[in-house]
Amino acid sequence: MKKKLLVTVFVTVIWCLSGTAVFAQSTEDSQEDESDAAADTAPAEPQLSFSGNAKTETGLYVRSGDNAGHFSIAKETLTGTVDASTDKGKVYITGNVFYDAIKAGKTGEESASDGLGADVKEAWYSLNSDLGTSGLTAGIKIGRQITGWGKADVIRITDVLCPQDLTTLNAANYSESRIGVDACKINLSGTYFSADAYWIPVFRPSVLPLENWNPLRRTIVPSSTSFSGVTIPVNVGQIEKPDAKLANCGYAGRLSFWFPAADFSLYGFYGYDDSPITSYTISYDSSDNPTGVTVDGKYYKYGMTGLDAAIPVKQFVLRVESAVFMDRALARKPEKAALEQVSYYRKNRIMALGGIDWIKDEWTVTAQCFDDVVLDYDDTLDRHEHEPGSTLRIMRTFLSETLTLTFDSAINWSEYDSFISLSAEYAVNDQLTLGIEGDGYIEGNDDYSTYGKYKDFSSVSFKGIYRF
Amino acid sequence: MMKRFNAVLFSLLLGSAAVSAQTLSGYDIMNKSDKVDEGKTSTYTATMTLTNAKGSVRVRDFIFYKKDFGDVKKSVIVFRSPKDVSGVGYLMWEYKEVDGKKKDSDDWLYMPAMKKVRRISGSDSGGDFMGTDFTYDDIGDRGLTKDTFTLAGEENVEGVDCWKVECTAKKSDERNPRRFTWIRKDNYLVQKTVYYDRQNNIQRELVTSEIKQIDGIWTICKMTMKNLSTNHMTVIELKDIHYNRPMNDSIFTVASVERGAIK
Question: Which of A20, A92, A179, B197 has its CA 20 to 30 A from that of A132?
Answer without folding.
Answer: A92
